[in-house]
Give the backbone structure.
Amino acid sequence: MTQPSRTPAVPQDAQSLRGVLPMLILCQLQSAESYGYELVVRLQNIGLTDLATGTVYPVLSRLEQDGSLTSRLVASTAGPARKYYSLSEAGEAALDLATARWRSLTAIVETGLGVTTTEDLAGEDQK
């Protein structure tokens, strides 16, 4: 089941997307294996509406080459066999690291933008 996007429709920056797409792909494959086109649709459904099919396949190939993904071919009744991708143990570790880095970066950006969190406000009350 896919979740609707909770972000406003703003054109995505290709450079930013390039940095987070591997993490998003690993995350999507953590929940269920997928073949390329299905993965593109899943990513579009979470809000990457401008995502082109051709953007995902090189990332899948790179992740498979570095050992983060495993793949298997499954025969299809409607054309050529589909290549299904799954997260490997190395992929789980890569996802954990990427997620930690992302959370650290977003905390820095939010601080730089002057965003105050509920935890910050609670700390101020105790001073």
